Amino acid sequence: MKNHSLATLGRFRRKRTLGRVWESMIPKFLLACALVSVLTTLGIVGTLLKETISFFTKVSLFDYITGTKWTALFNEAQQSFGVLPLIAGTLLVTGIAALVAIPIGLASAIYLSEYANPKVRKVVKPILEVLAGVPTIVYGFFALTFITPLLRTILPDMGVFNAVSAGIVVGIMIIPLIASLSEDAMSAVPRSIREAAYAMGCTKLEVALKVVVPAALSGIIASFVLGLSRAIGETMIVTIAAGATPRMTLDPTDSIQTMTSFIVQAATGDHSFGSIAYGAIYAVGMTLFIFTLLMNLLAQYISRRFKEEY
Amino acid sequence: MSAEKAIVHHQRGKPTPPDLSLVEKRESSHFGFRRWKNRCAHAIFLLSTMVGVFVLGALLWDVVEEGWAWVTPDFFNNFASRLPEQAGIKAAFWGTLWVIGLTIPLTFILGIGTAIYLEEYARKNRFTRFIQLNISNLAGVPSIVFGILGLTLFVRLAGLGKTVVAGSLTMTLLILPIVIVAAREAISSVPNNLRFASFAMGATQWQTIRRVVLPYSMPGILTGVILALSRAIGETAPLLMIGAVSFIAFTPGYALDAFTVMPIQIYNWVSQPQAEFQHLAAAGILILLAMLLSMNAFAVFLRNRFARKDR
């Protein structure tokens, strides 16, 4: 766009040479590259839709949405496809993760943006970046071999696989995301507004909580939503640490199963292509996709709609 | 408290405006409480920030303690085994190198191509906005959904089977949004003056991009690509979906071989009940983390090295 007028100027009085043909091919090739990501989206939606629809010709959609028993991997006679236990498990882990990540993430963001001197920032920010780059399989190992034994010294009757350990570690995983996005939102608040509050005699805490956080609220809330959407889609931590027992429970010490860990369990078992259990992978995948897509769109909407312009 | 002292001290000094100090005196006890609250909050915020640091320390300590003794030359030279003493990470290590090796050129071409298109060629119309919205939403799709896509599209529909190529293609699609965002940022940071100067010399648009825009933005692009690749190295779920299996007793010889990668080998070890396999998992994690940290360090080095130049 920005160079368009210059490009048309160049077209003036130049002969149609090999170079010109090359020059006109380039944008088409680059457009093709850009279309790959559009095709990826279409591919995701297409494959999920196709297999999900064929799944729902065998299982009623109503039973799927309202059923409270999920035994998709049992033999045919005992199969029952009520997705609510998987959703409950996912939300339980996400809720625990939110309890861990939202206060700590927000407090870290406030510290880094309002309190920390440049030297501390220079040390702490890369550490948070490293934490964000740790593979989820490593977090899973950490949950199983560190957090779970630690919790079991407090609650000895708790099982090895439980929702709380997975939830805490998922929360730890999304702390850097929430902290860095919230901090970005806070640093976008103009300095002059802070200075005005300081001139009125505010303490740092008052400036942070009564001026900066409200001014950056849309970005902060958007970071929460994005972080939780990441928690819903997290796979390896819950597969390793939360167990594989789909059940409706609010007890965080129970072993549960999330949507993602069901998908892993079903795909790594030997279920033939075309069986109902195999179709369940796509139905649950579609449910997961809709959940995360809605949350991502919500985050975008919040940060656009309620953005404060300075 | 210290504010009160300061005020007393202030009053001993000569030229204080009297009305101001009176106001402060009246307010001072309240002010002291506010300062105290501020100090408490400071401590709480600092502690919260330190949680991340502590966790990273605990995590590293946990992995090193469990796995350090198991990182031996044999660990690199052995294939997976039922016996923990004979198990090693050779197949997984080479599998990871194969997958990443094929992913690099694909992401490079597609990612940078898309970024150049969006930054340099695309007009600001609905279609361009649609592509952008699409990319930012793809970045939020859980990786396991990409695994489902890869399983359906590459493994089954394209008939590639559970091979290195299918894994690389899935990984490419997964990290493409990250690369595109980083490359766009790098390209849009090139000053327009440079482009105009190049056009003024009679260069075509593509010549300008190739000789001016790309060299200038390459450090930023490379940093983004390396960070995206380090994400790809650690990804487990999508490759688990497309069926990379963990008991493989050979290194991939060509792109249509079956394969396993390090995170999957680690996952397999973690899910074994015996304690020895936990040590193997920790040893595998140490190798994985060493690879990731050196890649991240290289990315940071690139960023610092070239950031100083001519800005």
For this entry, give a set of tags.
heterodimer; A: 310 residues; mainly alpha; MetI-like fold; 2 domains; 13 helices; 0% strand; B: 311 residues; 12 helices
Describe the model:
The complex is a heterodimer of chains A (310) and B (311). Chain A has helices at residues 4-11, 18-58, 61-66, 84-115, 118-133, 136-154, 163-187, 191-199, 204-215, 217-233, 236-241, 259-268, 276-305. Chain A has 310 residues and is mostly helical. Chain A has 2 domains: 14-58; 77-305, MetI-like (MetI-like fold), CATH 1.10.3720.10. The longest helix of chain A is centred in the first third of the chain and has 41 residues, at 18-58. Chain A is globular and about 75 Å long. By secondary structure, chain B is mostly helical. Chain B has 2 domains: 2-70, no CATH class; 73-307, Orthogonal Bundle (MetI-like fold), CATH 1.10.3720.10. Helix content of chain B is 76%, strand content 0%. Chain B contains 12 helices and no strands. Chain B has helices spanning 2-12, 18-67, 73-77, 90-121, 126-138, 143-157, 164-188, 192-200, 205-234, 237-241, 262-270, 275-307. In chain B, α2 crosses α12, α4 packs parallel to α7 (164-188) and α7 packs across α9 (205-234). Chain B is globular. In chain B, 44% of the residues are buried. Chains A and B meet through α1, α2, α4, α5 and α6 of A and α2, α4, α5, α6 and α7 of B.
Distance between the termini of chain A: 27 Å
Indicate the CATH class of the largest domain in chain B.
Answer: Mainly Alpha
Low-confidence stretches of chain B: 1-11
| Largest sheet properties of chain B | none
CATH topology of the largest domain in chain A: MetI-like fold
Based on the structure, what is the oligomeric state of the protein chains?
heterodimer
Output the radius of gyration of chain B: 28 Å
User: What's the β-strand tally of chain A?
Assistant: 0
Per DSSP, the total helix count of chain A is 13
Number of domains of chain B: 2
